[in-house]
Amino acid sequence: MIELKQVTKTYDTGKGALKAVDGVDLSISSGEIFGIIGYSGAGKSTLIRLLNGLEKPTSGTVQINDQVITAIKGVELRKARQKVSMIFQHFNLLWSRTVKENIAFPLEIAGVPKNKRDARVMELVELVGLTGRENAYPSQLSGGQKQRVGIARALANDPEVLLCDEATSALDPETTDAILDLLVDINKRLGLTIVLITHEMHVIRKICHRVAVMEGGRVVELGDVLSVFQAPKEAITKRFVAQVTETEDSNETIKHLRELYPTGDLVKLVFVGDQTEQPILTKLIRTNPVEVNIVQGNISHTQRGAYGTLILQLKGTREEIANAIAFLNNENIQTEVMAND
Ligand SMILES: Nc1ncnc2c1ncn2[C@@H]1O[C@H](COP(=O)(O)OP(=O)(O)OP(=O)(O)O)[C@@H](O)[C@H]1O
């Protein structure tokens, strides 16, 4: 539904030309929650402005559904842009208007008559969980409530795509989670395509289906969130993944665990997707005479399933331990012996 082909955006700065976005190819499906992550200056904001036609690429094309938005202008472009809405880090609300009036604003601009507007506003207020706060002013709302107004306003004219520009970066962790849950709910209920930019891997892990990692204007890694978390390829991706996973296998950690559990083998199990739902450990203990201790574990949940690692201490004869590991491999669990007797 969204197709970027060889998109480049160059800015003329005092010090010469700067490629903010550099040869980006992207294909985002309808109904997908797609995350773009990168550090400051990576080109995320520029890319998102290219998606809603606020910026024109220096070269390349941006297509949304069957319309190449880089090829249209004037009324046609304004119409196409109505299908792409946006929410912002600092909410961008009108401070002199109430919740209801803020949400009604895009409807007024679109020329929706007053009686229809009121009904639509109440529908949106309910959708984003603001019932009872309709007449409050933004200054009377918490950060999370302000973003709910931002979301309701963005949805007013039934967009096909919602762009989120660091939409939870100004919120505390608990409120962030509530807003992310709301975005997932809206994605499921309305089938809305969501493209979000962030520098927080937690946001990607919690709600995205796929992720693109940007560095220096380029997309350096792209994939299903679960695969990227399980096996990040680029150094920058590994740094982002490390934001939300423990690094259990540093030499120091292994040494520390060995001191705590001096006998048997320490074996790391890597789980992906459905396996985390299965009673693998119960089966292991029932079918193998080894003694099993759970030493450390870290299972995370993404929109595409769970992934994670578990470190076990396996005690028994060499043959019993080898059989237990073979059993796990047979169940499609990756294993790695971190230390043995
Ligand atoms: N209008 C502009 N004129 C000149 N340079 C710009 C302009 N907009 C962005 N840039 C430069 O382009 C590069 C990418 O900026 P961009 O804002 O897209 O990155 P970002 O990943 O969104 O970072 P941040 O999270 O800090 O906004 C930066 O070096 C920035 O200074």
TrEMBL record:
Family annotation (CDD domains): ABC_MetN_methionine_transporter
ABC transporter domain mapped to chain residues: 2-241
Pfam families (alphabetical): ABC_tran, NIL
GO molecular function, one term: ATP binding
Single GO cellular component term: plasma membrane
One Gene Ontology term from the biological process aspect of the record: amino acid transport
Keywords noted in UniProt: Amino-acid transport, ATP-binding, Cell membrane, Membrane, Nucleotide-binding, Translocase, Transport
Superkingdom of the source species: Bacteria
Family: Belongs to the ABC transporter superfamily.
PANTHER family, A to Z: AMINO ACID IMPORT ATP-BINDING PROTEIN, METHIONINE IMPORT ATP-BINDING PROTEIN METN 2
Protein name as catalogued: D-methionine transport system ATP-binding protein
Record organism: Planomicrobium soli
